[in-house]
Design a protein that fits this description.
heterodimer; A: about 120 residues; mainly beta; seven-stranded mixed beta sheet; four-stranded antiparallel beta sheet; about 55% strand; B: about 110 residues; six-stranded mixed beta sheet; three-stranded antiparallel beta sheet; 9 strands; about 0% helix; about 45% strand
């Protein structure tokens, strides 16, 4: 059974950093692209970032480019999202998701809440 | 990237059919046969129900179907059931390993 479990969320002050982690199991992690998707309170889904199987290619939404970094540790079956210079508008539930060719997202974690507020 | 356009709400009675639209551009919906749809119940993670315009993952009832014409994709839910009440989100590949979502549609079963 595929499982994706996020951790590391919480309350952070504007301008501060936060690092999200995602522990993957139930599939061969190093054979899949992975993504982060977020959902602000009461809003729709927003794609945040993608990373290739081996970590050699990374892509970001314009709203986070230059502030967020995506990485992975295939030995530990883990995905990460380093978020810097956080803003109030980054407040959202962040989902760790498996990304398939053709752009669909077939397995989702339960989500982790990030709140940016003073 | 601009978000895809979905109606904020849709509704239907049990047993009826309802169709939700998702409009993009030639750079996303119209440019690729890579539209997917997700169902999200309150407080839960989204669940993939349609991929590559009209394919259903294993376990998704055939009451759910997808289609596309030009820059607009559609999700049809036939034989509405109470448990279909949820938010529905469309998504399209937008090139360069990026994707774009719609704003979501709240489906109410009357």
């Amino acid at each position: 059974e595929v499982q994706l479990v996020e951790s590391g969320g919480g309350l952070v002050q504007p301008g501060g950093p936060l690092r999200l982690s995602c522990a993957a199991s139930g599939f061969t992690f190093n054979l899949y692209w992975m993504s982060w998707v977020r959902q602000a309170p009461g809003k729709g889904l927003e794609w945040v970032a993608n990373i290739k199987e081996d970590g050699s290619q990374k892509y970001f939404a314009g709203s986070v480019e230059g502030r967020f970094t995506i990485s992975r540790d295939n030995a530990e079956n883990s995905l990460f999202l380093q978020m810097n210079s956080l803003r109030a508008e980054d407040t959202a539930v962040y989902y760790c998701v498996r990304f398939r060719p053709g752009g669909y997202l077939d397995y989702w974690g339960q989500g982790i809440r990030v709140t940016v507020s003073s | 990237q601009s978000a895809l356009t979905q109606p904020p709400s849709a509704s239907g009675s049990p047993g009826q059919s309802v169709t939700i639209s998702c409009t993009g551009t030639s750079s996303d919906v119209g440019g690729y046969n890579y539209v997917s749809w997700y169902q999200q119940h309150p407080g839960k993670a989204p669940k993939l129900i349609i991929y590559e315009v009209n394919k259903r993952p294993s376990g998704v009832p055939d009451r759910f179907s997808g289609s596309k014409s030009g820059n607009t994709a559609s999700l049809t839910v036939s034989g509405l059931q109470a448990e279909d009440e949820a938010d529905y989100h469309c998504n399209s590949y937008a090139g360069s390993h990026t994707v774009v979502f719609g704003g979501g549609t709240k489906l109410t079963v009357l």
